[in-house]
Amino acid sequence: MESGMEDSVNAKIPNVINATVTMIVKVTHRNFTSDLKNTSSEAYKNFQNLFLSQMDKVYEGDDLPQYKEVIIRELLNGSIVVESDVILEANYTPEYQTLFRNLTKIVKNKIINVTRAQETDTSLCQNAKLCYNANFTTVDMETLKFSFNPVELCNQKAAADFGQYFYPEVVEGRLTCVNNCTRGTKSQLNCNLGQCQLLRSGPHCVCPNTDTHWYWGETCKSRTSKRLVYGLVGTMLAVLLVLVVLAVFLGWSQKKQHRAKYDPSQAWQREALPGTFKSTGVWEGQNLKEDNFGPEKGYSHFQPNLQPVDPNTELNFQRPKVVKSAAL
């Protein structure tokens, strides 16, 4: 849980709970007047008293002791359409919602039976009693509302930004506002060896880090051996080191071979070509490493190679010609 955040909150339960369901009936043999729009008018009050007294007779009885009252919401034209709420009241039980849904079915059956009864004396419908159109009678089960909503209560009891993660659940016989990180609940998030924490983004598992393993995953179910990881990392580093050493060695070998391709002493020791100079040792061996030769020693080691030259060979030179420029 985040700092200061509780994982459960006790829900204060009321002793008595009310339920409301919408009922619509159509009164026949009576005309809708403008006075019925005014809740303070005498016409409205007379109609209200007559309607409510009849509804009390409909719903009061041993089969519906939870009936409390009927409240008129609005009167509409056609002849007179009455929109009203039927109020039920019962002591709190954990199954109160199921109880009120079953009671709503009784409410619907009672009003349908009453509105189906046909009065042959229309004068009574116009004065002493109210008659109804059975085809128009409606009790909407989807409109059932409760005075106590534990879900809303838990949302209000929770800290700001956390209400959406709290919900009601009976824990140790008491209604409690809990979340998926609350221990002992039906929907507790199983984090295995990890710890459940409620964050603003919702319940999350915080996975442990032991001396031998790393735990990971949404519920900390997966784990990885540290010894295995360290071994793989060590192997990879060793392979990388070998590759680096091989690269350095190959680079050094290629550089050495490149230098060995050109040897000045070997170049001067080749068979002399006709009309060239022949080396007699100045560029060989130790002389390359020591400064033991000067110009005079260098010249003494170079001799013209005339052995391959034929002295009887006749040399022909082209006689130069004199070219005179034309007179201006």
From TrEMBL:
Domain SEA: 17-124
Keyword terms: Membrane, Transmembrane, Transmembrane helix
PROSITE patterns documented for this protein: SEA
The keyword Transmembrane helix is annotated on this UniProt entry: yes
Lineage top rank: taxon: Eukaryota
Ranges that cross the membrane: 228-252
The encoding gene: LOC113835696
SUPFAM superfamilies the record matches: SEA domain
SMART domains: SEA
Organism of origin: Cricetulus griseus
Protein name: Mucin-12-like
